[in-house]
Amino acid sequence: MISKKIFALLLFEFVVLNCYTEFRSVAQLLPEEEVRALETISSKLQNRYWNVSRSSCSSGGLNGTIAGGFISNVTCDCTFSDNSVCHVTRILLKEFNLTGVLPEEFSNLSYLLELDLSRNYISGSIPATFGRLNLTTLKPHQRFDSPEIGDIATLEELILEDNQLGGTLHQNLGSLRRLRRL
């Protein structure tokens, strides 16, 4: 038989080890390439509201309300690598008065599912590199006119409100087989 002292010591070690694994703190960080992409996007669109860092997902550095009540919302999924790695999955920058050309660096956010840039002053067409994203929802900028939209095969919702469309829509919209809402 095991002596009471040895049993008590083993029990104590078991409890301590379980508490350590239960209460350990795991940093939830963005990969460097996503940080660089967000910094570049923010710079190109003259977005002065983001404070981008590797810990932005857990520190709230990308979310907030600006003057006029408009909300910057960047959603991250932090369930990767035992809850220690985050990836940007949703970006909402509606009515931020952003300007500049639509940055192709959005396509470096490979986990991005939803992008809302509506009611801004962004110019340019959808970059061809957007075709490699798994976007399910896209609310593009004003003056939207881009044949490359048909390359985003995963697109389920394409919201074109408040756009200055004229003429006919591009034929390649017909290649969006998953599109449920236009």
Explain how this protein is built.
There is one protein chain. The chain has 182 residues and is α/β, with parallel strands linked by helices. The chain has a single domain (27-175), classed as Ribonuclease Inhibitor (Leucine-rich repeat, LRR (right-handed beta-alpha superhelix)), CATH 3.80.10.10. Helices cover 20% and strands 19% of the residues. It is built from three helices and eight strands. The protein has a six-stranded mixed sheet, with no helix packed on it. A hairpin with a 5-residue loop joins strand 1 (64-65) and strand 2. The longest helix has 20 residues, at 4-23. It is a single-pass type I membrane protein. Its main location: membrane.
Tell me the layout of helices and strands.
Elements: H1 4-23, H2 32-44, H3 56-59, E1 64-65, E2 71-80, E3 85-92, E4 99-101, E5 114-116, E6 121-123, E7 137-139, E8 157-158
Parallel strand pairs: 3-5, 4-6, 5-7, 7-8
Antiparallel strand pairs: 1-2, 2-3
